[in-house]
Amino acid sequence: MADVMVFLEQRNCRISTSGSEVVTVASSIASEIGGSVHVLVLGGPGTAENAAEFGQFGVVRIDIAEHAELSDYNPEGYARVIRDRVNQGDYAAVMLAATTLGKDLAPRVAALLDVPLATDVTGVRVEDGQVVIERPVYAGKALVELEIKATPALMSLRPNLFPACESPESAQVHMFRPDIDPGLWPVRVLERKTLAKSVLDVSDASTVVSGGRGMREPSNWRLLEQLRDALGPGAALGASRAVVDAGWRPHSEQVGQTGKTIAPKLYIAVGISGAIQHLAGMRTAQTIVAINDDADAPIFDIANYGIVGNLFEVIPRLVQEIEALRERS
């Protein structure tokens, strides 16, 4: 019998929202192979305060390493602690979320463990005792199934795609002090810049309003801000790579193959033509609305609803209608 390990991200001693999704998938896989789910959390003093909450998702063991040197993410330090913990157990699979941090960390863990890595996984199952994953290829144009024969099967899961299902367990919390030597770390965090507390990250939003080159200039983003505000507190702003490269919007808002992969309930693409690199980051949204004055724009091929028209006329009218609907409800 082998178990499944999940590495959970934390920021400011709070567990990342993507963690519950990964734990849910891990619980399903563990039940198929007859094992249990072990969670690993690394962080500074105080990290343990919120970790026990993951017992509700089927976790039986939570290993927590609290160390002042782990307060900030360090690629070398984190990867080595994970490697050591995996080697101390009997794990059939190790899972991380394919977040910005996860995409940086997972390949380092794979190198240290000398196993292959399946990235941006969109489906996982066990077949004849082997872990089988599904992941997109060719910028999301196709999906492939791969059988992972290495042990452990190391993978990063696409966030905001898997439902988080509660499965209460009496999780045991184990504290340990990792054997680390910060003097050997070639990279150190010198400064951290965060978004304002009132700004919702595009990865955590249930509704995303994204703009592209069709917005013409940065000052026109006020229209998208008005639409975001009208849609409510669960909405966030996104952007295409073109406008991020032009310096109109911060990289933290970029959606696409070289930005963030998201799966909100509602995605509104405004002035975005629909390059395949952008579609790779948002095509798993539950509902896609496209607003573009070009009826032949590729974005309409995957949109559930499309509006062909001048966005500078459409957006104000849309904001007006949404606000009126909210007033009536």
Q: Give the CATH superfamily of the largest domain.
A: HUPs
| Proportion of beta-strand residues | 25-35%
Please list the strands of the largest sheet in the order they lie side by side. Answer: 7-11-6-1-4-5-12
Globally, the shape reads globular
Over all CA atoms, what is the radius of gyration? 21 Å
Q: Enumerate how many helices there are, as a single number.
A: 8
Structural class determined from secondary elements: alpha/beta
Query: Overall mean pLDDT score?
Result: 90
Number of strands: 17
Name of the CATH class of the largest domain: Alpha Beta
Low-pLDDT runs of 5+ residues are none
Instruction: Count the domains.
Output: 2
According to CATH, the fold-level topology of the largest domain is Rossmann fold
* Helical residue percent band: 25-40%
3D structure, described in words:
The chain is α/β, with parallel strands linked by helices. The protein folds into two domains: 3-184, HUPs (Rossmann fold, 3-Layer(aba) Sandwich); 207-328, TPP-binding domain (Rossmann fold, 3-Layer(aba) Sandwich). It has helices at residues 18-33, 75-87, 100-113, 221-231, 241-245, 276-282, 299-302, 311-328; strands spanning 3-8, 10-11, 14-15, 37-43, 59-66, 91-97, 117-121, 123-127, 130-137, 142-148, 153-157, 172-176, 207-211, 235-239, 266-270, 287-292, 305-308. The strands form four sheets. The chain has a seven-stranded parallel β-sheet, sandwiched between helices. It has a five-stranded parallel β-sheet with strand order 14-13-15-16-17. The mean pLDDT is 90.
